[in-house]
Write a structure and sequence with these properties.
The complex is a heterodimer of chains A (344) and B (604). Chain A is of the alpha/beta class. Chain A is built from 15 helices and eleven strands. Helix content of chain A is 45%, strand content 16%. In chain A, helix 2 crosses helix 3 and helix 11 packs across helix 12. Chain A is globular and about 75 Å long. With 604 residues, chain B is mostly helical. Chain B has four domains: 162 residues, no CATH class; 86 residues, no CATH class; 176 residues, no CATH class; 89 residues, no CATH class. Chain B is built from 22 helices and no strands. In chain B, helix 14 packs antiparallel against helix 17. The relative contact order of chain B is 0.07. Classes of the chains: A alpha/beta (344), B mainly alpha (604). Chains A and B meet through helix 2, helix 11 and helix 13 of A and helix 3, helix 4 and helix 5 of B.
Chain lengths: 344, 604
């Protein structure tokens, strides 16, 4: 009997676990909301990635609260938090760690000893990841996929849960290196951080420039162990075959020239989503269903997460760029055209 | 396995509603396609008259196959479009329409599973399915209503039927049949026209004088000349040409009936109607015949009298009475010839002295010198003058013939010519008598023959004109026997000896007074003449040179716009040629009577 079967062996236990999960999520939202004003959709998607055991790429111009969000999240989750500021001269050893020569004072013996880099934490903030060179960016690949780091021929496991939250400025800005597709594919979701709304900006000003600036303290909501349990629960959420088929059809629709591709968008996409895209859709949708108090994924969950899960996995054609079609617009069109009803 | 009855009920109900809705949409779609197909078929049938014309057996087969195809497509569409798939698919549709987050479809999909998550999903689905508001919401979410554009199919079918039954076929594609039909109609029209023309020609040719008078003896003017022309490609053109020719003939007959001979006959009849025939006696029959204008009867009576006189069968008393009556008749005829009432009235109407009627030469000079008359009026007056002169001449002949017979009677039946013109009683030549009684009798006979001939001519002309008018007034297509059956109308025949009756409508040649429409004046020429108000009498020949010079001078001083140069050149060039071609003819009227004579050459 698996751990899941042991823990949630009855309808009541499942309902209880779902309710607890929802309570935790609400508490997290509340705590983050104490510090971060607005950006509810961003917080929601970051939490989804957290419980889906995936990494998040946050994209937005500076000053929108990306770093604050990650730091607050680390405080609320009680996870080891580490921040890496990516710069053009950042070397892989600066991230992963390095072997240094250590001399024993007593014996005078010298040996190489591994000094862990900032990646050896649970919640990593890879700030402005696209400012580092591709070499340094690729240092994250193994850690993100395998949750392990190999240095000097020795592989070291990273502590679970492990979550990378990378931020990047829009690629159009100067001094940026676009992330390679292979690395982009490792991110569960790519979250676009929008500009703050009028009321949010007003509230930010009140909080930060007022006469009495309150020092917000974030309570610990959930620990590492509970997070892993929540991740297990999320994996156990039910996905009906026709709902899963919908996710598959969405991903297939991004494949240019494929059997399931849409003729309307055939010339707009150069590279379609990989199977990781379908995995990401389902994983994230499961968490979203739990957030909604449901134990089964719906097609609406998948449709609402399609942009975040697929936008960094497809590459637009020149024709699409010329026509002003963004990746989000293409995915929205796919969601509109692919029927959500069950197909025989 | 959980009891899914509530969910199954919802799914079944949803399926029924979906099938009904899809059935309606399928019916609408198929009806639109069928209507469009029928519209195309009926349109083609009308336009190109295909071989499967509905009237034929193949047409019936075609219609039957078409109906089977439409029904087959309909059944296929209904069967394929209304197969809604399995329960999961139907439940999924309900989920989407009611925003149930796939609870029903997930419950149906995992119905066979027993794990707790599946059981939770099934319970959630059952909870929703058991909700009392579910069925009501389902009815709202899956309504059974008229599909969009449901009217398009029936409308197309109705239009197709209307086209099929009410629109006449053009038969563009059946060129051979159409051509053959056209040839037949053309031939029928030509035959009918020929019959009509032949009838008129035979009518006219019965009187050679009439034939000559209307120009039928002239091969160029002969009726039916152009009817066989290949340019007349359609029956309608043949009918038009026939009507044109008949109208032309009618116009010539009208001219004849209003011409000099007719006026001469009328003048003679008018004059003869004045005589007072003897109420008794041998000359009664001749006098009455002359008064009636019956030339044939008068000629016969005259011949009879002459024969009796020459044979000497008359007793002296009767002969004496006859001589007296003949003398009286001769006097009346002379008086009638001198009366000239018609001419006198015409001259007075024209503003001339009526007394001029007694002197033809003076009347002619006066007519030519009259300033208030235009050329047409002068021409008409001259014609009346000529007619009156001819009538008077014939009346004089008759009077002389009577005098000659009078002398013969007095001589006891002997011809006065034998006495070298001496009268029997005094040896003097009889007054006004011709050189011989034989000449006088011949003259009378000739005069009466001419009058008889004129009478016959006018009667035949009147009859022919009546026939022409009947032909023109009758329904043109119906006058053609060959086409009367095609049009299913009764024709009036090809004329013949029909009685002349007044009708509500008819054709009447009439010259309208034309007024200037105020067009642009492109040339003005001052005439070197006193400023006389009235009819211009300048001849065209006088003006043509001035017009040409004026055009050249005018274009030098004030150049004509480039786009009008050719028009001006063509106009003035043709004008000169036309005037030169009419050289010697009197100038036509170019301005109304009230127009100042300073602008006779105004052309526009």
């Amino acid at each position: 009997m698996t751990a899941v079967q042991q823990r949630w062996d009855s309808v009541e236990s499942v309902r209880e676990a779902c309710a607890q999960f929802r309570g935790v999520a609400n508490s997290l939202r509340h705590e983050i909301g104490q510090v971060l004003v607005g950006q509810t959709e961003v917080v929601e998607q970051v939490l989804i990635a957290l419980f889906a055991d995936g990494h998040v790429l946050l994209e937005g111009v500076p000053g929108l609260g990306k770093t604050l969000l990650v730091r607050t999240l680390g405080q609320a989750l009680g996870m080891k938090f580490s921040r890496i500021q990516f710069t053009p001269d950042l070397m892989p050893a600066d991230i992963l760690g390095t072997q240094i020569v250590v001399e024993d004072q007593a014996s005078g013996h010298r040996e190489f000893q591994f000094r862990k880099g900032p990646l050896f934490a649970q919640l990593i903030l890879a700030d402005e990841i696209n400012r580092a060179s591709p070499k340094s960016q690729s240092a994250l690949l193994e850690a993100m996929q395998e949750r392990a780091i190999t240095v000097g021929g020795e592989t070291r496991r990273l502590e679970r849960p492990f979550l990378v939250l990378a931020t990047q400025n829009p690629l159009e800005q100067e001094g940026t290196y676009p992330l390679p597709e292979a690395q982009l594919d490792r991110f569960l979701l790519k979250v676009i951080v929008p500009y703050a709304k009028r009321a949010d900006i007003a509230q930010i000003i009140e909080r930060t420039t007022g006469h009495s600036v309150a020092e917000s303290s974030v309570k610990l909501v959930i620990g590492s162990r509970e997070i892993q349990d929540a991740q297990l629960l999320a994996r156990a959420v039910l996905v009906a075959p026709h709902v899963q088929d919908y996710a598959v059809r969405l991903v297939l629709a991004t494949h240019p020239g494929g059997d399931w591709g849409l003729s309307e968008l055939d010339r707009m996409i150069v590279v379609g989503a990989s199977p990781r895209g379908a995995q990401a859709l389902i994983s994230a949708a499961k968490v979203r269903a739990l957030f909604a108090g449901r134990c089964a994924v719906s097609t609406q969950d998948i449709a609402s997460l399609a942009c975040a899960a697929l936008r960094h996995r497809i590459a637009r054609s020149f024709e699409a760029e010329a026509a002003g079609m963004t990746c989000d617009a293409i995915i929205d069109e796919i969601v509109r055209l692919v029927p959500s009803e069950a197909q025989e | 396995m959980s009891n899914l009855n509530p969910i199954s009920t919802v799914v079944a109900r949803a399926r029924r509603r979906l099938v009904c809705g899809e059935l309606l949409r399928s019916v609408t779609r198929v009806s639109i396609w069928a209507g469009a197909l029928l519209a195309v078929v009926s349109g083609c049938a009308k336009l190109i008259a295909p071989w499967w014309s509905p009237a034929g057996e193949r047409g019936m087969w075609f219609v039957a196959i078409l109906a089977v195809v439409i029904i087959g497509v309909f059944v296929w569409a209904v069967l394929t479009r209304t197969s809604m798939g399995g329960d999961v698919a139907v439940a999924s549709v309900v989920d989407v329409r009611l925003r149930l987050h796939d609870r029903l479809s997930t419950a149906v999909a995992v119905a066979g599973r027993t794990d707790p998550f599946a059981q939770v999903a099934i319970e959630d689905g059952l909870t929703i399915a058991r909700d009392r508001r579910m069925l009501e919401a389902l009815n709202r979410a899956i309504p059974i209503e008229r599909p969009r554009r449901w009217w398009a199919g029936p409308s197309l079918v109705a239009i197709s039927c209307a086209v099929w039954w009410f629109v006449p076929g053009l038969s563009l594609g059946n060129a051979q049949v159409q051509s053959a039909l056209s040839d037949a109609e053309l031939q029928a029209a030509r035959d009918a026209a020929k019959m009509q023309i032949d009838s008129l020609q035979s009518k006219i040719e019965t009187n050679p004088e009439l034939s000559r008078a209307v120009g039928e003896s002239d091969s160029d003017k002969k009726l039916g000349n152009e009817l066989t022309d290949e340019k007349l490609a359609t029956p309608e053109e043949v009918r038009r040409e026939t009507t044109r020719q008949v109208n032309d003939l009618a116009k010539r007959l009208d001219d004849l009936l209003a011409g000099e001979k007719a006026q001469q006959l009328e003048a003679m009849k008018d004059a003869l109607s004045r005589i007072e025939p003897s109420k008794a006696g041998p000359l009664k029959q001749l006098g009455e015949a002359l008064k009636r204008g019956d030339a044939a009867m008068a000629k016969s009576a005259l011949a009879e009298l002459q024969k009796q006189v020459e044979d000497g069968k008359l007793d002296p008393k009767t002969r004496e009475e006859l001589a007296k009556q003949l003398k009286d008749l001769a006097g009346q005829l002379k008086d009638a010839a001198q009366a000239n009432d018609a001419l006198k009235k015409a001259l007075e109407n024209a503003g001339l002295d009526g007394a001029l009627a007694k002197n033809p030469d003076a009347a002619k000079s006066a007519i030519e010198a009259a300033k208030n008359l235009n050329e047409e009026q002068k021409k008409a007056l001259k014609k009346a003058l000529q007619a009156q002169s001819s009538a008077n001449e014939k009346l004089d002949k008759l009077a002389k013939a009577c005098e000659s017979m009078c002398s013969q009677c007095k001589n006891g039946g002997k011809k006065p010519g034998n006495g070298a013109g001496k009268s029997s009683d005094g040896g003097e030549p009889s007054e006004g008598a011709p050189g011989s009684s034989e000449n006088g009798g011949e003259m009378a006979s000739d005069a009466l023959s001419e009058m008889e001939m004129l009478n016959e001519l006018m009667k035949d002309a009147e009859s022919a004109r009546s026939q022409c008018q009947s032909s023109c007034q009758s329904d043109r297509p119906s006058t053609i026997p060959g086409t009367s059956n095609m049009n299913n109308k009764g024709g009036l025949g090809t004329g013949g000896e029909r009685t002349k009756e007044k009708s509500a409508t008819g054709t009447k040649a009439r010259k309208e007074k034309v007024q200037s429409t105020g067009g642009e004046v492109i040339a003005r020429q001052l005439v070197d003449a006193p400023p006389v108000v009235g009819e211009s009498r300048a001849t065209l020949q006088q003006l043509s040179g001035d017009i040409g010079r004026g055009y050249e001078e005018g274009t030098e001083e004030d150049p004509v716009p480039a786009n009008l140069r050719e028009v001006h050149k063509h106009y003035f060039g043709d004008l000169k040629k036309k005037i030169d071609a009419k050289s010697g003819q009197p100038a036509p009227t170019v301005a109304p009577a009230t127009t100042p004579a300073t602008t006779p050459a105004t052309k526009d």
